[in-house]
Amino acid sequence: MNRYERRPAEAGEAKVEFLDGDFRILRPGAFVRCAVTGDPIPLDELRYWSVDRQEPYSSPDASMQRELERR
User: Fold this and answer.
1) Coil, strand, or helix at residue 69?
2) In a domain, 6, yes or no
3) pTM beyond 0.85, yes or no
């Protein structure tokens, strides 16, 4: 690697702050884990999360499952 090449993104788990309609990366990484299934979610595929709970979800079904668990 020469000094002009970019280093690859860290392959580990990222730390993320979930905001309304967006998220902020606090610690770089390649993925976050679904709060329901534990499956890794690549950051470029992250679409579902809870701002109140600060949890990511792998799918709408996982989000709904968490909502039903919390009642």
Assistant:
1) helix
2) no
3) no
